[in-house]
Design a protein that fits this description.
The structure holds two protein chains of two kinds. Chain A is α+β, with helices and mostly antiparallel strands. Helix content of chain A is about 70%, strand content about 10%. Chain A contains ten helices and seven strands. The model of chain B has no long low-confidence stretch (mean pLDDT about 85). Classes of the chains: A alpha+beta, B alpha/beta.
Chain lengths: ~425, ~130
């Protein structure tokens, strides 16, 4: 029955060695294990040849006990601990059998079958342990495998999500750039509308500069004539006129200068510096520009412009070109509305734009009212949305009011309100905190 | 002496005319009056319409436009009908057509060519 011990030891070594197949421990243990395998076989052959049954059993028990005691203490084999421990009964049984056979041979001779049975049972126990651990190991492997698959899937999903996130991030950045570009092109578009108005506004002072210069040259000639005649009094009167003309030239030159500066300010990207501003002056300036801009596009257009400015309006701390853009937008819309109505109603309709400024407690209000077609109730809550426009495709960007809203509400902590009655009027009320 | 009413919302038109027609005013050939709006021109005409022989009016003015003023003049003052010349910065055909339809005698564009204006005045006032 000693064969079981050697066989169990032999198989234990093989199994441990096999399980180390993909582990760095293999390199460490393979030579010792191979030696141990041969040693096991050698010891068995030696025992069978040279020893009697009792000594054979004793030796088998001792060899097995020695081997598993060593293995059990070795941390590298800790994962096989339960299997290794399963060998103790067999080693014990062999030792007891051997000792009994030596010390009480007669007793042993009588009951050796029982001893053999115990050894067999211990051997079966070992193989049973192996079978159950193998099953557990298989289940464990299966779970590990499933875990790996899951890990892979999670990693894949994570990668997909990261990719999507990156793509969205990219799209967002693109949208932000596009928005900036749209704002800039909207500014340029409104500048385009302004060009005609600006040209007209510059032409007027320029005419005066030319006219007063020309007339001054004539006056100098006349002054020479008077001096030649000796009429110094008349010459002095003419000189006074010339002086007055030169002042007019300066005045109108500065007027043109101011208009060009205003235009440059309007087109500038964004300085965002708030300064104390005369809202009346700003409103008047942009009202004229808007009117002339529209006139240049459609020469048959005419509208009455009523300005009702509060002379005691306090200066307001705003970004002038931003507020200018808002006003320009409101004026252009108002002119557009009355112009559309004029086209349908005809000559009896009198297009009127009224701009009012008033000072209220802590506020300055700018009211732009037109007697155009009004805003239908159904779209009233949409007009401040970006890209919403009632103009035909290609004519309006739909950004005017939404940008105005941003400038007034976000940029200046003010408010824009709309009052309208269909077919009668539209009124925009911009309020700015003083 | 011929009385001419100049209607323009730009007040500097007044010294300009006075200086341009310095000699004519001095010699008593022309006498200029000025109005800054259509409304002002009408109220001036109410008092002086028999004296005013020629009216020079800008078209683009806040409030009453030059064209409207022209219609009112043609409607209210038949005898004697004053000569009305329209002046505008927008010298397009449509504007000219409209002015002439409403009864303008002449249509001039800004910047004003004073030599041309003097010629026209001569022909109309002879």
């Amino acid at each position: 029955m000693e064969i079981f011990s050697y066989l169990a030891l032999f198989l234990l070594i093989r199994r441990i060695l096999k399980s180390f197949q993909f582990s760095p421990l293999r390199a460490k243990w393979a030579p010792q294990f191979t030696t141990a395998l041969w040693l096991t076989v050698g010891l068995y052959v030696l025992a069978v040849c040279c020893l009697n049954d009792a000594l054979q059993a004793l030796m088998a028990g001792a060899v097995l006990l020695g081997a598993i005691t060593f293995a059990d203490r070795e941390p590298d084999f800790s994962s096989f601990s339960s299997n290794i421990k399963a060998h103790y009964p067999l080693a014990g049984a062999e030792l007891v059998t051997g000792l009994t056979a030596i010390i009480v041979p007669r007793f042993f001779g009588k009951y050796d079958n029982y001893f053999n049975f115990v050894i067999l049972a211990a051997a079966v126990w070992i193989f049973a342990r192996w079978a159950t651990t193998k099953k557990q190991r298989q289940e464990f492997d299966l779970i590990t495998q499933q875990n790996m698959v899951l890990d892979k899937m999670v990693a894949q999903r994570t990668a997909e999500l990261t990719k999507q996130k990156d793509e969205l991030q990219g799209t967002l950045e693109l949208l932000q750039t596009t928005q900036q570009q749209l704002i800039q092109s909207e500014k340029l578009a409104s500048l385009g509308e302004l060009t005609a108005g600006i040209a007209h506004e510059i032409q007027n002072p320029l005419n005066f500069v030319n006219n007063f210069s020309e007339v001054s040259i004539e006056l100098v000639d006349e002054m020479d004539e008077e001096l030649a005649k000796g009429d110094t009094q008349e010459a002095m009167a003419i000189a006074a006129d010339i002086r007055q003309n030169l002042e007019k030239i300066i005045h109108h030159g500065k007027r043109a200068d101011g208009i060009v500066k205003g235009m440059l300010q309007h087109s500038r990207a964004s300085s965002n510096t708030k300064e104390l501003t005369d809202i009346n002056k700003l409103a008047d300036e942009y009202l004229r520009l808007a009117y002339h801009g529209l006139r240049a596009k459609d020469k048959s257009f005419n509208a009455e412009m009523i300005t009702c400015f509060d002379e005691n309006l306090p200066m307001v701390n705003v970004v002038p070109q931003d507020i200018g853009r808002v006003l320009l937008n409101l004026f252009t819309n108002a002119f557009y509305a009355v112009h559309q109505k004029q086209k349908t109603v005809g000559a009896e309709f009198k297009p009127t734009i009224k701009v009012t400024t008033t000072a209220k407690k802590g506020l300055v209000e700018i009211i732009v009212r037109d007697n155009g077609d009004g805003i239908p109730e159904s779209i009233k809550d949409k007009i401040m949305q970006p890209f919403f426009t009632t103009k035909p495709t290609g004519e309006g960007t739909g950004l005017g009011l939404s940008m105005s809203y941003d400038i007034i509400v976000k940029g200046h902590s003010g408010n824009i309100e709309v009052l309208s009655k269909e077919n009668e009027y539209t009124e925009f009320i911009v309020s700015l905190p003083v | 002496m011929m009385k001419i009413l100049v209607v323009d919302d730009e007040s500097d038109v007044q010294p300009l005319f006075v200086q341009r027609f310095r000699k004519e005013i001095k010699s008593g050939e022309y006498d200029f009056s000025f109005a800054l709006s259509g409304e002002e021109a009408l109220s001036f005409l109410e008092k002086h319409h028999s004296e005013v022989i020629l009216i020079l009016s800008d078209i683009n003015m806040p409030g009453m436009t030059g064209i409207e003023l022209l219609s009112r003049i043609r409607h209210s003052y038949e005898k004697p009908p004053p000569v009305v010349m329209m002046i505008t910065a927008y010298g397009d055909d449509e504007n000219r057509q409209q002015a002439l339809e409403k009864g303008a005698n002449e249509f001039l564009t800004k910047p004003l060519d004073f030599t041309l204006l003097k010629d026209k005045l001569h022909t109309f006032l002879q």
